[in-house]
Amino acid sequence: MRKLLGFAFLLLLAIAGWLAYGLLVPLSPNGQKFIILRPGYSTKRIARELKNAGVIRSFDAFVLWHSLHRRPSLKAGEYLFEHDANTIDVHNRLARGDIYVHTVVIPEGFNMFDIAKAISDAGLGRTEDFLKIATTETSLISEFAPRATSLEGYLFPNTYQFTRTQSMHDMAAEMVKEFRVRAAELGLSGDVQKTVTLASIIEKETAVSDERPQVASVYVNRLAAHIPLQADPSVIYAELLGGTYGGALHHNDMQFDSAYNTYRHSGLPPGPIANPGKTSLAAALHPADTRYFYFVSNGNGHHRFATSLEEHNRNVAALRRAMAQQR
To answer: What's the pLDDT tens digit per position in 243-270?
Structure first.
């Protein structure tokens, strides 16, 4: 009997030692370890992924510990392990949902091609996968842009935190949700597609917030007078859609055959050419009251505005002189 008790004591001591080793002794990952735990993974599947990645010492110790600590549940997501941690530390991180997020910065004026590249650069997926969503999932904006052929214009510029467990649809939906919030703040109503299209041109024409109402007035005045908008960014976008843009515009490009080419077609293009920010949307809603029909860069990041072609030509000549002096 004494031998049996001794054996049992040694066995319990061995189990306690094994458990303590498996749970309490920290493990140092070999460099950065990224692990994606998908929704629906079982505890055993999670333990296997962690063990295979060299993040925990013991599969069985992890499963046993979780069986004794089922609340809160382990959270799906992508996790980064790069510091020494024991199994209990790892379990606690998963219970907290301490997931790794990828920051995606979408500046004002980015188009859907730019956004697709930003998402790809952040390691969240392929550009073509995002573009497929952007050009097909128009149901996301059907309540305020029923005629839209893409999500262009409604992927609101912001800094986003995404994970690799989110789908491209999820990411686009989050950007559209942000647009809804900003549109509501501005009181955007009526022909939303028309307003966003005008705002997108304003956004691409000037980075100076204070100038945007004036730029808006130029295009509003041209629309009222049935004068082609002649907005260079619309030609660039037309060529982007056609896959022919070479990085710079030339005189022949102004004849590019596209409904988005505002040199060849009067009125607004069929849809937005970029994703405008709040100040450009505000400018499209509330353009300045001017008689301007023209504007051109002054060479210093701002623009000169003109009411007549003669005045505009003088402004263009001034720009050319300024550029010549800078060479």
So the answer is: 888 888 888 888 888 999 999 999 999 9
pLDDT in the model for residue 87: 93
Q: pLDDT digit string (tens) for 67-81?
A: 988 778 899 999 999
* Residues 245, 199 share a domain: yes
Residue 212: count of CB within 10 angstroms of its CB: 26
Provide the residue range defining the domain that includes 107. Answer: 102-186
**Residues 267 and 141 grouped into a single domain:** no
**Are residues 138 and 81 part of one domain?**
no
Q: What is the mean pLDDT of the chain?
A: 92
Q: Does one domain contain both 322 and 297?
A: yes
Dist. CA 317–CA 311, nearest whole Å: 10
Please check whether residue 192 is in contact with residue 143, taking contact to mean a CB–CB distance below 8 angstroms. Answer: no
3-state class (DSSP) for residue 137: coil
Contact criterion met (CB below 8 Å) for 57 and 37: no
Tell me which amino acid residue 253 is: D
Q: Are residues 69 and 116 in the same domain?
A: no
310 and 241 housed in the same domain: yes
Give the pLDDT of residue 3: 64
Specify the residue for token string 């005629």.
147
91 plus 138 within the same structural domain: no
DSSP code, position 138: G
Q: How far apart are CA 116 and CA 126, in angstroms?
A: 8
Instruction: Say what the pTM is.
Output: 0.87
- The number of residues making up the chain comes to 327
Phi and psi (nearest 5°) for 88? -65, -40
